[in-house]
Amino acid sequence: MIRQQQYRAGDVVLPSGELGKGFCILESGTLEVIRENKVLSEIDIVGSIFGELSEILGMKRDATIQAKTDATVRHVEESIAEIVTKNPKVAIKLIRTLGRRLYRMNQIATRGDNENNIFKKANNAEDEDGSVDQVKILVVDDKPAIAKQLSEMFAKSEWNVESATDEASALKACEYSGYSAILISMALPGETAVDLRRKLKTNHNVLNTPVIGMIVMGDEHAQKKALNSGFADCISKPFDQNKTEALMYKMMNLDSSARYFKLIDDHLFFKLPPELSNFVINDIKENMDTRIRNTINEGILKLIIDVSELEEVGEEAIEVVGEFAEKIEDMKLPIRGAIVATGEDAEMWNNLDGCEEWIICDDFEQAKESLARPPSEDDDE
After folding, report:
1. 3 state SS of 24
2. Residues lower than pLDDT 50 in the chain
3. Rounded to an integer, what distance in angstroms lies between the CA atom of residue 254 and that of residue 245?
4. CA gap 93, 23 in Å, rounded
5. Which residues pair with 74 in a beta bridge?
6. How far is CA 71 from CA 9, 45, 150, 233, 252, in A?
7. Taking phi first (over 0 means left), then psi (-120 to 50 degrees means alpha), and beta for anything else, what does residue 261 get?
8. Number of helices followed by number of strands (H, E) in the chain
9. What is the rounded CA–CA span in Å between residue 92 and residue 100?
10. Among the four 18, 84, 180, 250, which has the fewest Cβ within 10 Å?
11. What is the per-residue pLDDT for 354?
């Protein structure tokens, strides 16, 4: 019996703990093989066979196969012995599949997971001590200025950037190291970008790494080519810092609210960027609730909002700060606040709902000192 089934991202295709029969064939999409909350590998090549080991070994599955993207899978629910008897060529394909899998796992075992950080945690899980691995990005472009621009841009988020100028140097870089994301210029000669993306997906160090295309703004042909070739998404040159950072946070499954909110000592520090475009405003608002919940979870009771670098204090800035303060006030959180603001209009921030009792300071250090004093001392001043 053969049945074809559609899966949505996150659906379990084959659960662990069951004794399987037959095997499956990937028709479209990408699947992940997960064991003990770690992604062992991805299945993303159309025609790939998987799920056959359970019947061959007579053992229950010890890993879960889950859809990473929307996917279509053909389930061949007939005993492998019967299938091979009818069509001996299937046996050859199964042997090759098992051989490639064994070769890949032997390489992983030789190098060691601890040394090379080969396995990514499922769903971007944190280590037991709560720490998150340092973000490391590989930029593949034959124009050195591009890598320099991205390095300077990502320095704000404390991400490390490495560069490669061609296919050979990129493959060599990935031979002994893993990356959080790989950016490849679609303007590389010929089919280099597409070929490189395909080869990277056979490298166990970067199996699970999102590969993103870099295109010239407005080049729809390059964008379509990248997406049709399996690139996760595209960013445009010249780079818009806000849009580029937002896409990278999304692709790496990181908390994008870290772009505006940071935990410094025992304070939540919220710094508004100099320019508040509609894109930035919406991005901040979308992350407010997440950051407030994280702040509560961390036990933080002091908040500093820095508006000193705003190019101009317009209605948008007032709305963003006011909405954030109102959310905290509505939740009746015992959080004390300070606003870093300069100029003649600095005191106007106390007119916002929720900000009436907040302290107005000239810089971050002064704000920390003010919040360190008991509330009564601030009232006396």
Report:
1. strand
2. 111, 113-116, 118, 124-132, 379-381
3. 11
4. 12
5. 4, 25
6. 7, 11, 33, 18, 21
7. beta
8. 13, 19
9. 12
10. 18
11. 83
Give the DSSP H or E segment for 133.
none
CB 20 within 8 A of CB 51: yes
Which residue, 242, 251, 297, 240, is CA-closest to 272?
A: 242
Q: Which CATH class is domain 136-251?
A: alpha beta
Best CA proximity match to 257, nearest among 236, 284, 238 = 284
Q: Which residue has the tokens 């304070």?
A: 267
Q: How far apart are CA 111 and CA 117, in angstroms?
A: 10
- Summarised one tens digit per residue, pLDDT across range 286-331 is 888 888 887 777 888 889 999 888 877 888 888 888 888 888 888 7
User: CA dihedral in degrees (210, 216, 218, 223; nearest 10)?
Assistant: -30
Could you give the residue range(s) of every CATH 3.30.750.24 domain in the chain?
A: 256-380
Q: What is the CATH number of domain 256-380?
A: 3.30.750.24
The topology (CATH level 3) of 2-115 is: Jelly Rolls (2.60.120)
Quote the distance between the C-alpha of residue 27 and its chain's center: 26
Distance spanning both ends of the chain, measured CA to CA: 82
What is the Cα–Cα distance from 44 to 50, expressed in whole angstroms?
11
- CATH 3.40.50.2300 in the chain, residues? 136-251
Q: Which residues pair with 345 in a beta bridge?
A: none
Percent of the chain with pLDDT over 70: 90
The Cα 142–Cα 184 span in angstroms is 10
